[in-house]
From TrEMBL:
Any Pfam family matching the protein: PolyA_pol_RNAbd
Cofactor(s) needed: Mg(2+)
Species this chain originates from: Arsenicicoccus piscis
Keyword Metal-binding recorded: yes
Highest taxon of the lineage: Bacteria
TM stretches of this protein: none
UniProt domain HD: residue ranges: 265-381
This protein's name: CCA tRNA nucleotidyltransferase
Amino acid sequence: MTTAPDQAELLATAARQLAPVIPLLTELGERFAAAGHELALVGGPVRDAFLARTSPDLDLTTDARPEQTEALLRGWADGIWDVGRAFGTIGARKGELTLELTTYRTDAYDRTSRKPEVAFGETLEDDLVRRDFTINAIALRLPVLELVDPHHGVEDLAARLLRTPSTPEESFADDPLRMMRAARFVAQLGVDLAPEVEHAMTERAASITMVSAERVRDELIKMLLAPDPRAGLSVLVRTGLAEHVLPELPALRLERDEHHHHKDVYEHTLTVLEQAIDLETDGPDLVLRLAALLHDIGKPATRRFEDGGGVSFHHHELVGARLAAKRLKALRFDNDTVKAVSRLTELHLRFHGYGDGEWTDSAVRRYVTDAGPLLTRLHRLTRADCTTRNRKKAARLSRAYDSLEERIARLQEQEELDAVRPELDGNEIGAVLGIKPGPVLGRAYKHLLAVRLDEGPVGKERAADLLRAWWAEQPESADD
């Protein structure tokens, strides 16, 4: 049995973590106290301090009303804004720090629309009980740094357990998005769901459809960018939430035939995601992680049992690209992300035609040109997609991809392949053929681009000769 942590020791840990901002918080707390008001640091910053994490935000709560908060900040803060005034929040900047001060609240939710009716509260304890999870319902009273933890959030942090201050059924009925936040905290903080929390999430999973796609998307992004997105995604699937927000993921749990002719696509997908994360070099890459998560979602629709006992998924990359775009659009992702993830899904099998290096230079050029600015991500996705337990096969695939990357680097150095253009520009093409800008000139341009990809640099004179030969075969040339 885990021994409850010593409160004084945990408070000391939090104080050490908060040390850089303690002088500022103390000064502000004394300013509010002198005016007869309470002030407390609350939520994420306190939770993160106990976890020895640095929080980017300083969230505070007070019994002061917004107009009183604004008056107390005036003359102290370097900047003040009130865009959250309707919810009791006044923002402020002091030096390089950003603070948000919110009046105690006792929200009453309309459970048919999930929109809260904002009502100001009178006590810190009433404010804490409305919060989503006990680990976020911890406060430090200022300026004395008194710990306020009526729902034993510090103990839950020590036990890495996610519980709710009120019953989970009531909490999730108030705001179904909290279920997505629960999965996100599993991925982000390494906590486990309390049994009653997981039960309530499973029972109320369908209510997530009340929440806007944008809010669901934002939680999904935070989960995917967390240290352990697999854990959070597993929660979504296990509780049934994924059926409503990302149904393509649980659909990957295909029934396997008795001879196990194909991998468990769901487990394979989560492994690919983990392996893609391991290949990141400049921090979390949302596009890469989404592509790893969605790259095989075309398999359920394309699975066929062949006469010889095998299983095929012909063109699943093309079907998957369309499904990925559809899902991401439904979740209100931006167009650039939709296009990039869809394109990576479409291209993720292209390498498997490379074999032992039989590709011509032309094929390598087309691979690079088709990938465009996504080439580095395609490299990582393709490598991550190898989850075979056969070491010899894995080593062979790795060597083949090493060979392809070396050839790409060599060709890029020789030809600046990442900026391939025909050797004649539009003006030069028009001059050679005696035609004006328009669709015909566009076709001529594409023809010379194909020549460039197939043959490499041929020089302007040779390009002009090839262009004339092509033109002689076009019906438009007979009209000249």
